[in-house]
Design brief:
Chain A: One of its GO terms (molecular function) is phosphate transmembrane transporter activity. Chain A: Residues 62-280 form the ABC transmembrane type-1 domain. The complex is a heterodimer of chains A (297) and B (305). With 297 residues, chain A is mostly helical. Chain A has helices at residues 2-36, 42-46, 59-90, 95-109, 112-126, 133-157, 161-169, 174-203, 242-252, 258-292. By secondary structure, chain B is mainly α. The longest helix of chain B has 40 residues, at 13-52. The chains are: A mainly alpha (297), B mainly alpha (305). The interface between A and B is large, with 90 and 86 residues.
């Protein structure tokens, strides 16, 4: 009998713990969403921010976040694609490959603030770029590379060797086999990973404070020449992103409606992450269906 | 020239394609390795300068309690006592891991052993979503919910190690949970079946078989969570109070390596003692993350045996 009672007590405890966790997390998320969602309006999403008066928006910051994400993906995707192909297809099994793998693992576990400081030292100070979008994008690339590389490697290794043998048997070169046969089959997994990584990049702040900077200069949305300093596309302008904005207004404490703006921005960030998660799943499934002609996964 | 001879003696189109592919993929991987090496080189060279160029005492750095790098102490060495920050960082990390581990394991066990398929999928997507929530959002939650909560229920200003560890608890809980779930799922099914067939109750099976065989995976999950907590900058910085003094208790303002680093880098001039001392803190962070990595590796190796 004793063991049965023990069993019941233990299992109930586990259930309570799980319930408690869901409750805590739901409470915190709900708190932010309830405080933030009413604050989201078209004006809030598009208006420029105010430093000392209330009623400012997050328009510039939102644009900066999206632009930075776009740049980061453009830089990091090709590099991690090559690196992933190397690890999955070309890497010989030896000491050197093991070291490379370890280097990638170390990079992925580095605190993002250290990555940011390195970007600050190398690009902002040594190369004299100043606080700029491009420095931020490169710092975020360092941050994104290891995850993306590992994801691409995993997606490629998941493709059965039969496909590679078929390609070789047709007399294709290994490179052709990889790019024309293996890669398309691995594409759904890769896209899912890219989108999930995008969610992470979108909310990153610590790596950006000292690379992309903490000031949102006024940008002129009618000026699309990338060389003009007021242009949204200018690579050398400092660009405060949404996540950095939340941090800055909370630690400076000069904005009268800082908590409302942060709640609104936090809600936007959470919704964006939710959106990225959904998009990853939908895109992955849709691509898988299209490329493999299966009806359901 | 004879076409056949030409074909045999020159490299084929396929060989050239393969060479191109090799060059491309090798250069990508080389670039990543180069990035890692240069991060280590730059941070280390800056961090060591405190001791070589500015004649800081390494022992003072590790055990001194006064952090004021611009001022020299009686011996003419800069005051670079980093102990308050080191204590702060370890304090919040260990406390957060202590809070989070039972909750994470409980939730993971519920998901893998007790929940229905639908409940499991629901929890899974909640956890996945929470892993992706940006850390500043957690910091803001800490500022607007946890700091007032601590102030009202425990006293003090609300800023301090306790609030910091609560924020980190919320932050690393999903990370540890999802990794623990993975390691519980990889326990072979027949272990469980064999145990149940012997007449063990569900709890006995969980406690004596499943948890035991997933131990190394769970430990890895906890260390990953700790590494994330140790390196987290902004969420902690927002709630810990940022006073570079020895914390008297869990409720008094304290600081971590990352919080002093984020606050200070913008206010010091490159190449000065004050700046170099901050880079030494960054070096400590770097070495700690390396240590966490090595720990994970050791545990993984032990788990495989």
């Amino acid at each position: 009998m004793k063991t049965k009672i023990q069993n019941r007590i233990a299992l109930t405890t586990i259930r309570i713990i799980a319930l408690l966790v869901v409750f805590i997390l739901m409470f915190l998320l709900g708190d932010i969403l309830i405080a933030g969602v009413p604050h989201i309006s078209w004006h809030f999403l598009t208006a420029p921010s105010q430093s000392f008066t209330s009623g400012g928006g997050i328009g510039v910051q939102l644009f900066n976040s999206i632009y930075l994400l776009f740049l980061t993906l453009i830089i990091s995707f090709p590099i991690s694609l090559g690196a992933g192909i190397f690890l999955a297809e070309y890497a010989p099994k030896n000491f050197l490959t093991a070291t490379v793998r370890m280097a990638i693992e170390v990079l992925s576990s580095l605190p993002s603030v250290v990555v940011g400081l390195f970007g600050f030292l190398l690009f902002v100070v040594q190369m004299k770029m100043g606080f700029s979008i491009i420095a931020g994008a490169i710092a975020l690339t360092f941050f994104n590379l290891p995850l993306l590389t590992r994801n691409i490697e995993e997606s490629l290794t998941a493709v059965p060797d039969l496909q590679r043998e078929a390609g070789m048997a047709l007399g294709l070169s290994k490179w052709r086999t990889v790019t024309r046969i293996v890669l398309p089959e691995a594409l759904p997994g890769i896209i899912t990973g890219v989108v999930l990584g995008a969610g992470r990049v979108f909310g990153e702040a610590a790596a950006l404070i000292y690379t992309a900077g903490q000031s949102a200069t006024n940008i002129d949305f009618t000026q699309w020449n990338p060389l003009n300093s007021a242009s949204p596309l200018n690579l050398m302008r400092p660009a405060e992103t949404l996540a950095v904005h939340i941090w800055k207004i909370n630690s400076e404490g000069v904005m009268p409606d800082a908590s409302a703006v942060s709640a609104g921005s936090s809600a936007v960030l959470i919704i964006a992450v939710l959106f990225f998660n959904l998009l990853a799943r939908l895109l992955g499934n849709a691509l898988y269906r299209k490329l493999t002609a299966t009806k359901n996964r | 020239m004879d076409p056949i001879k030409n074909k045999i003696q020159n490299s084929s189109r396929e060989t050239r394609q393969d060479l191109l592919g090799k060059i491309l993929s090798y250069s990508c991987i080389l670039l990543i390795v180069l990035v890692v090496l240069s991060i280590f080189f730059f941070v280390a060279s800056k961090g060591i300068a405190t001791f070589t160029v500015d004649h800081g005492n390494f022992w003072t750095f590790l055990t001194g309690k006064t952090w004021n790098p611009i001022v020299n102490n009686a011996k003419g060495q800069p005051e670079i006592g980093a102990l308050p920050m080191i204590v702060g960082s370890f304090g919040v990390t260990i406390l957060a891991a202590l809070f989070a581990t039972p909750f994470a394991i409980g939730t993971a066990l519920y998901m893998t052993e007790l929940a229905s398929k639908r409940g499991e999928r629901l929890l899974q997507s909640v956890v996945e979503l929470l892993v992706g929530i940006p850390s500043v959002v957690y910091g803001f939650i800490g500022l607007s919910v946890i700091v007032p909560f601590v102030r009202n229920h425990f006293g003090g200003s609300g800023y301090g190690i306790l609030s910091g560890s609560f924020v980190l608890f919320v932050m690393i809980l999903p990370t540890i949970t999802s990794m623990t779930v993975d390691s519980l799922r990889s326990v072979p099914r027949f272990y469980k079946e064999a145990s149940l067939a012997l007449g063990a109750t569900k709890w006995q099976t969980i406690y004596k078989v499943i948890l035991r065989s997933a131990t190394s995976g769970i430990l890895t999950a906890i260390i990953f969570g700790m590494a994330r907590a140790f390196g987290e900058a902004l969420a902690v910085q927002m709630v810990i109070g940022n006073a570079a003094v020895m914390p008297k208790n869990l409720l008094s303002s304290a600081s971590t390596l990352t919080s002093i680093l984020t606050m200070g880098i913008g206010n010091t001039v490159m190449g000065t003692v004050g700046n170099n001392a901050l880079w030494s803190l960054a070096l400590v962070l770097l070495l700690m993350s390396l240590l966490f990595n090595i720990l994970v590796r050791l545990i993984g190796r032990k788990g495989r045996m």
